[in-house]
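Dock NAP; give full complex structure.
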Amino acid sequence: MSVLARVLPVLKLYLTAVKVLFYQLLHKPFAVPALPKQHGKVAIVTGGARGLGYAIVRQLAGLGMHVIIASHDKKQGLAAVKSIREEQSRALVDFEFVDLASLSSVRQFVCRFQAQGLPLHVLINNAAVMLVPEGKTDDGFELHFATNYLGHFLLTRFLLDTLVHSGKDEACSRIISISSSAHYTADKDFLFSRSMQHYSAHGAYAHSKLAQVLFTYRLQQELQSSGCAVTASAVDPGVVDTHLYRNLSTPARLAQRLIAHLLFRVGSWRSPAQAAATAVYAAASPELEGVGGCYLYEGKRVSSSALSYDVELQAQLWRRSCSLLGLADSLYVYQAKRGGGGGGAYTNLSL
Ligand SMILES: NC(=O)c1ccc[n+]([C@@H]2O[C@H](COP(=O)([O-])OP(=O)(O)OC[C@H]3O[C@@H](n4cnc5c(N)ncnc54)[C@H](OP(=O)(O)O)[C@@H]3O)[C@@H](O)[C@H]2O)c1
């Protein structure tokens, strides 16, 4: 592996992070405006037991939503539920186990969720890993790709029926995928090689985050043409002080802790609560009612990378994901809606 191939993704990722930190230094964090109460609504937040996900769960629960933390650490998930219930005595928060890196676990999670007969108004695809050493899941997929993207792709498609049935024209269900500025650094080669020829943990993370944006835009287009009351958008939380950085090498981790500490004091490095604001806004703001296909940062719609708007690339990734998962390309969403078949299954998926 050439030195350049190894170093380039690292440089690109850190330069992007520095740019974001500068932006955050010069701008006040976005504060969520007063949002209407969300009683009767149900949300799933993957990776909601810690970090940004936990902050999102806490804020959505504060609005009266029933929030389900979907994560793979039961102890931590139950501790998160306990802490939010202690803080907000009327909070409706639950934990359900899911390992996004396992396709069978995603299926089982959806089965258990559907058995409860709950509606679903908000799905936040937040869980992620970053900079994990080269490895594959039991299903044979690279770890970043599987956890951050493919598991969420499957989860979203399995939950689509419920999201479609729960959405109304004046109150669409919302699918929000937490991406990252790292996606700006990704190229498109990853789509065509199942295992990377030259593994780069930095590159793999960036690719998984670009995949989320491509998926979001394609999904929004599909949902829009079907006339379903569901929207899909991506959120970039900025640079946030969380456990995501735990896989940095020890010297890099020490430097990151020091820089985070200093920059946090001047407001450049966001707290999870501050960074959660845009996702909460995307989930509950009346201003975004019926609006999808956005890439949101600091409460505003901004441009994602040029590559993410490549419609052919979106379609290629969609087809490839369906083929990897053994799913049909098309969602039955359209036929069911257009044919007026409201009562049956909207998607062509069996669990
Ligand atoms: N922190 C940042 O600066 C930053 C910047 C841009 C974007 N983001 C994005 O923000 C989102 C949240 O990240 P964070 O910063 O809050 O990181 P975090 O504190 O590490 O939280 C990630 C969550 O995902 C969970 N998770 C990891 N693998 C999982 C799996 N296989 N199945 C189910 N859950 C799993 C983690 O559980 P465990 O801890 O138990 O593994 C954790 O609860 C991610 O999508 C990340 O890419 C973060």
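Observed: The chain has one domain: 3-338.
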